[in-house]
Every structure is written in structure tokens, then in C-alpha cells.
Automatic annotation (TrEMBL):
CC per GO annotation: cytoplasm
PANTHER family given in the database record: 2-KETO-3-DEOXY-L-RHAMNONATE ALDOLASE, PHOSPHOENOLPYRUVATE CARBOXYLASE FAMILY PROTEIN
Catalyses which reaction(s): D-glyceraldehyde + pyruvate = 2-dehydro-3-deoxy-L-galactonate
GO MF, one example: aldehyde-lyase activity
Highest taxon of the lineage: Bacteria
Cofactor requirements of the protein: a divalent metal cation
Tagged with keyword tRNA processing: no
Pfam family, one: HpcH_HpaI
Keyword annotations of the record: Lyase, Metal-binding, Pyruvate
HpcH/HpaI aldolase/citrate lyase domain boundaries: 18-243
Protein name per UniProt: Hydroxypyruvate/pyruvate aldolase
SUPFAM superfamilies: Phosphoenolpyruvate/pyruvate domain (SSF51621)
Matches recorded under InterPro entries: Aldolase/citrate-lyase_domain, HpcH-HpaI_aldolase, Pyrv/PenolPyrv_kinase-like_dom, Pyrv_kinase-like_dom_sf, UCP028291
Length: 352
């Protein structure tokens, strides 16, 4: 009886695109929910999520029972860590921050038993062999391990062609976020230079015959990657899905409640000037419409202000969301207008 077949590895070898999702909740219950979605693979993130071997194992267990395949990302590519992940029964691993062919070769050795590799032999204790219930595990395990590595900085990209010659690396994942950071575009993986480097790298990986992979939430980039021949594509992240939908649902709930609104006025002959100054000042942060007589400024937070200028006064209506801080918003509006009206005695009276 051989080691369990790695259907994910087989699909990559056959060039069949596999759509996956990053799961970073670091919780088996959440992983079990994700596993009902039907993704081909789920990346259990041991690098950026608060996971340890135990939590990785619990998530792998619940995913294995579904139609999805677990792929575990290690925090870093250490031989002893790989040994533990494989003995725990993980068959597909993703190793971050690979930047040389020597490093890739060491990782290949780490996932293989002697004489080809250095994986320690402990299968009699290991879940991977079903605790020695799989008699042929030792001689069949290597073939079912899928080793995926991440190239995600300038050094790795420079060594990519040599890395792609390393036998035993089943796929190479380009990490846009970390590559962007190393390219001087921290937080801006969508920068044209970064996207160009990513697509060039993916094309080289595909041309080498190895599987190419990436995580991107951008639908256009996802389409482009599949057109390039990417075969392990992660299109979502559970944490961001959950966080964004919770925030949106909280806002839509509060939208059922009345806004907090207050009016105010200031006697001045420069009402139109100050109105236009305030609208221009906040035009880069919020949604702004104005002319010489009236203006509206709205922010994503729910804070907004309407202004009307006459020849003698500036009239204001300030509002915040039901849970917003109206007093703080009034102070912000007052402070900005006082700064613009520094040449005169300017008092803004609120009708609260
Ligand atoms: O560099 C990248 O991009 C990745 O390796 C994926 C990120 O680590 C993932 O956390 C999403 O930002």
C-alpha cells in the first residue's frame, strides 16, 4: 500500500489550472468552513498567519476530508521544519523567500528520504504513514510530495533561471507583495514595474515546464496569469473576505439609523473664499463638489459637511454616521475654517 496520491501535484504535472484560496484565520473551524467552498486547494499560511505545527495539522485534517487539497506554507525553509510538516501528513508545501538554486536544492533534499535526500526517517510515529499502517510509505512518499517555492525578491528573480533548472522543485510561486517591497514599491504590488516583473517571471517559470503560481486578488491580473499558463492561482484570502464583509455589514446596519446632524453659521464677508478653500483642502481625501456659492464634502467614514456662502455669512451643516464622533467633526471643521480666516475675527457658532 503506497503513500496517498497527491492529486494536486498530479494536476499541476498535467498542466491543469488549480484555483485556490489563502486561509489565514489560523483556526480549524474556519478552515472547515473554507473547505466547503470547493476551491481546488487551500493555502494554510504558516508564514503570516498565527499558525504553528499543531494548528496547521488541525486545519490540514479538516481540509483533507473535503474536495480541496491543503497546501501548507512554512514560515521559512528549514529542514527540521519541513520534516515535521511532512511527518504530520502535509504532502504539498510552499516555502517562502527562496533566492538561489543552492537553496532550492537543499529544499529538494529536505523533502526526500535518503539516499537522494536528508528527510529524517520517523514514519513509524508519523501521521503521514498513518502511523505505520502504510507499509510502503518510505519507498513511495517522495513521489507524492509537492515542493513549491516562492521567488519574491530581486535576488530570487535574478537567480530564477538557475532555480528553474533544479530537479525536484515542482512549482515556483512569485510573491507580488514581497517582490514589490524589494523593488522599492512597498505596499504597491500593482505598480506597472512590479506587474511587469511578475508576469516576466511567471512566463519564464511556465517556459521551464514547472508549475507557475501566484496569489492575486485583481481579476484582470488573475485572467492574465491564467493566460500566461499559471496553474496554481490563489484568487482570494479568507481573512480579507471576512474583515471587509464584516465592516461593510456593520456600516449597512448603521445606515438604518439616522445620521447625527448639526448646523452652524459664521458672519463673514469672505464666506465664498473659505468655502472654496475648505473644499479644495479636502478634495484629495474625500468626495468634493463645489462652486462659489455651495459645496459638499463627504468621507468614507461617514463624515460630511455642506456649506453655503452668502455675502454676509457662511452656513454649515455637518453630519456623521450614527456611531460617528460629531463633536470631533465639528472641531475639525472649525479649526480648518479658523486657519483660513486668520486675518479676521472669525467665530463659527453651532446650533446644537
Ligand atoms: O509576497 C507575496 O505576495 C506573498 O508571498 C503572498 C503574501 O504573503 C500574502 O500574505 C498576501 O499578501
Amino acid at each position: 500500500m503506497p503513500a496517498p496520491q497527491n492529486v494536486f501535484k498530479a494536476a499541476l504535472k498535467a498542466g491543469e489550472p488549480q484555483i485556490g484560496c489563502w486561509i489565514g484565520m489560523a483556526d480549524a473551524y474556519a478552515a472547515e468552513i473554507a473547505a466547503t467552498a470547493g476551491f481546488d486547494w487551500l493555502l494554510v499560511d504558516g508564514e503570516h498567519a498565527p499558525n504553528d505545527l499543531r494548528s496547521i495539522l488541525e486545519q490540514v485534517r479538516v481540509i483533507e476530508g473535503s474536495g480541496s487539497v491543503p497546501v501548507a506554507r512554512l514560515p521559512i525553509g528549514e529542514t527540521w521544519m519541513i520534516k515535521q510538516y511532512l511527518d504530520a501528513g502535509v504532502q504539498s508545501i510552499l516555502v517562502p523567500m527562496v533566492e538561489s538554486a543552492d537553496q532550492a536544492r537543499a529544499l529538494v533534499r529536505a523533502v526526500q528520504y535518503p539516499p537522494r535526500g536528508v528527510r529524517g526517517v520517523g514514519s513509524s510515529l508519523a501521521r503521514a504513514s498513518q502511523f505505520a499502517a502504510i507499509p510502503d510509505y518510505l519507498t513511495t512518499a517522495d513521489e507524492e510530495i509537492c515542493l513549491l517555492i516562492q521567488v519574491e525578491n530581486n535576488a530570487g528573480m535574478a537567480a530564477l533561471d538557475e532555480i528553474l533548472t533544479v530537479e525536484g522543485v515542482d512549482g515556483v510561486f512569485i510573491g507580488p507583495a514581497d517582490l514589490a517591497a524589494d523593488m522599492g514599491q512597498l505596499g504597491n504590488a500593482g505598480h506597472p514595474d512590479v506587474e511587469q516583473a511578475v508576469t516576466d517571471g511567471l512566463a519564464r517559470i511556465v517556459a521551464s515546464g514547472k508549475a507557475a503560481g501566484i496569489l492575486t486578488l485583481d481579476p484582470a491580473m488573475q485572467r492574465n496569469c491564467l493566460d500566461l499558463g499559471v496553474t496554481f492561482l490563489a484568487t482570494e484570502i479568507d481573512v480579507t473576505l471576512f474583515a471587509k464583509s464584516m465592516r461593510a455589514k456593520a456600516q449597512s446596519g448603521f445606515a438604518l439609523l439616522p445620521q447625527q446632524i448639526v448646523t452652524g453659521q459664521a458672519e463673514t464677508g469672505n464666506a465664498s473664499k473659505y468655502l472654496q478653500q475648505l473644499c479644495k483642502h479636502w478634495s484629495h481625501k474625500g468626495q468634493v463638489e463645489f462652486d462659489v456659492y455651495a459645496g459638499t464634502i463627504s468621507f468614507a467614514s461617514g463624515n460630511s459637511v455642506k456649506l453655503k456662502a452668502t455675502s454676509e455669512a457662511l452656513e454649515i451643516e455637518a453630519s456623521v454616521s450614527p456611531r460617528g464622533d460629531l463633536d470631533r467633526w465639528k472641531i475639525a471643521i472649525t479649526d480648518h475654517l479658523k486657519r483660513f480666516a486668520f486675518r479676521e475675527e472669525f467665530e463659527l457658532y453651532w446650533n446644537n
